[in-house]
Design a protein that fits this description.
homodimer, 364 residues, alpha+beta, Creatine Amidinohydrolase, Chain A, domain 1, Creatine Amidinohydrolase, six-stranded mixed sheet, five-stranded mixed sheet, 9 helices
């Protein structure tokens, strides 16, 4: 693991907490916990929660038998393991008796928040992302390097797909092959793989299913994995055989839109301008109503995180922000095309973290 | 997909809501949503939420571009798609303006609950599981059949592992192979694969890592997948080469404990008695302090759900409940052994849903 400077992160969090009058943060499943401790909890029913008071060392409350998975940092955070017959919520509540304003991790399960609200009846709860998000959205050099490595690993999977037979496989079989390649190329785990063939490609979040891929299909392939905690996310569109003019034309429009989105990205640019730049190209080509989602999302310890590249989000891009640029065109009953790369905002523009060829990939 | 009787499930939920004075349920990511609609939402930042009022048809609020993934059921639930620039929380709040008492799905993200609490300031929120859990914990014939199919698919993966080379692979590589086998044997997706070799086996939830498996290692292999929404979960312990007496002895103790747990299970038995039966065997053999977790968990649309087989849970088992029986012994610095099957409570006892041989599996 990269030795991130967790004490510095906690210090910056406490500075923000002081400024905003937040007495403690309660961070559970999801990305906040690894951001501050290096430990990612299993998203299961046994409570894991970091209690981070503004004025005292942090405590990680976790199932005793999962404690071997974590290395505490003396003076930074200690472990408070609970046994199977203990009540972990009362442990957490006991650690924040004097707190009046509590920030709760966005992805914390509601059943735990409800329990804490009931046992800490006088406290006021708000979303921790308002505070933690400000830190997490700017990646430091170590984080950028892991995103770079994850991007390169995803590129290698695309290279393998160019030599993979598509025809005759179900979407689900190909998705499983991709997941294995994602791990083989250096991710610690596969996060997801969308394989949307033929008319299924018109559903942007299609779930790989039992449809058998056939010659003449366009296939949207969107996958990612996690590498030392940081995610990759890439989309390329494949065609089984020689693509006809209509698919080539739509692909060229999407590729131009993606290029425009990347070109528009850079420090100081409002996030929504990236969306506008990509959308303008697609609209000008007459497919505006078929680009049905935002242009991108931030990426890091989560697959999707701030900043979101969407109309209405005027937050200015800053060096260190990493996000996807992924326009698409979805033609119901026909096919879909999407093209996605991750970019990292630099001092002068962006660095692309994916280099896999951006053409329409022809496969067997 | 199995055509579950969703209208009947909604009717039973409304009967309980009426009895308990709950005005509406708000169900998001996790298993409640597929239980009532057949649709499982992606666990991402775009809100998907079923608003289920006690006295009106249900509405599924979801991202517009994910709407093609769902088939609404006329008269049962309709779709309310939101566009990328809409505020989905205000849509949900608008649908429950008149509700005073709201039940929120346990795994709903806290950021959404906090938003709803703020816009529906007069309402009282509680955990939906108090109500929905009562329905979900008893599987009907269709659910039992899918759990049976998932168990058989997991058994086939174990059979393949008997002929798989372990030595020389990293835990992570073997875990990825297992995930691919889980899909190849009929699951729609792999849920997890724990591969804990040598001393790593002493950590029950060890995350498969870079350790290279070697001759002389005991290897705890615990994996599962999802089949038409329902989960498998099985653990077998392997040994690379010929196991020495100590490993064989510990394995025999765990196998006897597992058998005792299964034998103790049946209708009317308090859940904790299953735990006690398994624990007694391990304690009698002198390893009591090394069995550090509960004996099992319910399984269904979630990997882990009620009932939990743990000291302190006196809920009586009922026909239709499905759960794991998975005692283990964990010897720090040495190795671990765990053995897990899923059982289904019947009218007279339990049916085992896994038939893979329960011996210590010797591999190369």
């Amino acid at each position: 693991m990269v030795p991130f400077d967790y004490p510095a992160r906690l210090r910056r969090a406490r500075e923000l907490m002081t400024a905003r009058g937040v007495d403690a943060l309660l961070l559970s499943v999801g990305a906040d916990l690894p951001y501050f401790t290096g430990y990612r909890a299993m998203p299961l029913e046994r409570l894991t929660m970091l209690v981070l008071p503004v004025d005292a060392p942090a405590t990680l409350v976790l199932p005793a038998f999962e404690a071997p998975r974590v290395t505490p940092l003396p003076g930074v955070f200690s472990l408070e393991p609970w046994e199977e017959t203990d009540d972990p919520l009362s442990l957490v509540a006991g650690l924040c008796r004097s707190a009046r304003r509590l920030g709760v991790g966005d992805t914390t399960w509601s059943v735990f928040l409800l329990g804490l609200q009931s046992s800490l009846a006088g406290a006021e709860f708000s979303a921790a992302s308002a505070l933690v998000g400000e830190l997490r959205r700017r990646k430091d050099a170590g984080e950028a390097d892991l995103l770079r490595q994850a991007g390169a690993a995803a590129d290698r999977v695309v290279a393998r797909l160019d030599h993979t037979r598509f025809a005759g496989k179900t979407e689900r079989e190909l998705a499983a092959e991709i997941a294995a390649m994602v791990v083989a190329e250096g991710h610690e785990s596969a996060a997801f793989s969308i394989v949307a063939s033929g008319p299924n490609g018109a559903s942007p979040h299609h779930e790989a299913g039992s449809r058998v891929i056939s010659p003449g299909d366009a296939v949207v392939v969107d996958f990612g994995g996690r590498l030392h905690g940081y995610h990759s996310d890439i989309t390329r569109t494949f065609f089984v055989g020689d693509p006809p003019a209509r698919v080539r034309k739509v692909h060229a429009v999407v590729a131009a839109a993606q290029e425009a989105g990347v070109a528009a990205s850079g420090p100081g640019v409002p996030a929504q301008e990236v969306d506008r730049a990509a959308r303008r190209v697609i609209a000008a080509a007459g497919f505006g109503s078929h680009f049905t989602h935002r242009t991108g999302h931030g990426i890091g310890l989560e697959e999707h995180e701030a900043p979101y590249l969407v109309e209405g989000n005027a937050v200015p891009l800053e060096p260190g922000m990493a996000f996807s640029v992924e326009p698409g065109v979805y033609l119901p009953g026909e096919f879909g095309v999407r093209l996605e790369d991750i970019v990292l905002v630099t001092g002068g523009g962006v660095e692309r973290l994916n280099g896999a060829p951006r053409h329409l990939h022809s496969v067997d």
